[in-house]
Amino acid sequence: MTPEQSFSRWVRVALGIFILAFGYFVLADNYAPMTPQAQVQRYVVPVAPRVAGQVSRVWVGSNQPVAAGDPLFELDDSDYRLALERAELDLGLAETGLERQQAAVRVAESQLEQQLGQAQNLAAQTHSGLLSAEARLQEARQGERAAEVGLRQAENARAQARLALSRTRVRAEVAGRIGNLQLKEGIYAQAGGPLLALVSEQAWVTADLREKSLRHVTAGTPVGIVFDALPGEVFRGHVESIDSGVREGQQAADGQLAQPVNSDRWVRDAQRLRIQIGLEEPLPALATGAKATVQLFPTENGLFRTMARVQLWLVSQLRYLY
């Protein structure tokens, strides 16, 4: 075989391999899509005090697991205890004022009854006294209503003081793990300012795929997952949902005109959509954000299912290398 014939043969072989690879890529992208752009997601709850104060004690350490209701840290409660004591004193004064006004109402009612009894014999002389007694009774009742309002306000102030005092000890709202703890005793905490993160135990996997690859994918489509941290292992799951949009498609109602995207590229970047994946077996102890590769099985066709399984097996083995 001459060099020219050998070269021509290798060109035909390379061209055949390219055509086969291209055809495989097109079929796989439509009927056995895979993406390495997947990761573990968890709810991360920023923990912030609801009242201000100096941190007096920290009960937890970084990466420590906690249960719902466990104490996380405390604020100095001196000011809040004094506020509660002041509210209780004000409540006592309000109760005393109400009792005094109720006694005044009883006295005014008694005086009015006496005036009514006298009016039967001395109508002309006691008429003015009767009017005066009625006015004093009305005034006493108004004072009683005002005292009742003051009592309710004092009770509300005491309840608020008690609530503020209880909030000086911050507890975990959900079970999880403390993340990136930077909190130390002596720091002055502002109300509503996050001081640490609580990583929830509830986890799922998200994956980003091109729009075209999702043509045959619906909720319930089975998937296989390979985590970078666990090479050689394949986990089963299924598609729970496909996001309805991405940020680029969000239009702000700001009164401005649309600004079309200008591009001189002949082939533009494909838009990717995010899918939510639920695992059908316990999720291993992986960090939030752990990377994964997701293989979808959107068709019952045996050939495409075999292609997808082979792809996923190869990826699981390659994870030993990188």
From TrEMBL:
UniProt xrefs under SUPFAM superfamilies: HlyD-like secretion proteins
Keyword vocabulary terms for this entry: Coiled coil
InterPro entries registered for this protein in UniProt: AaeA-lik-b-barrel, MdtA-like_BSH, MFP_Efflux_Pump
Lineage: superkingdom: Bacteria
Coiled coil, from the record: 98-125
Ranges of residues in domain p-hydroxybenzoic acid efflux pump subunit AaeA-like beta-barrel: 205-295
Gene3D superfamilies: 2.40.30.170, 2.40.50.100
Residues spanning the signal sequence: none
Entry keyword annotation includes Coiled coil: yes
Domain Multidrug resistance protein MdtA-like barrel-sandwich hybrid: 44-198
Entry similarity comment: Belongs to the membrane fusion protein (MFP) (TC 8.A.1) family.
Protein name as it appears in the record: HlyD family secretion protein
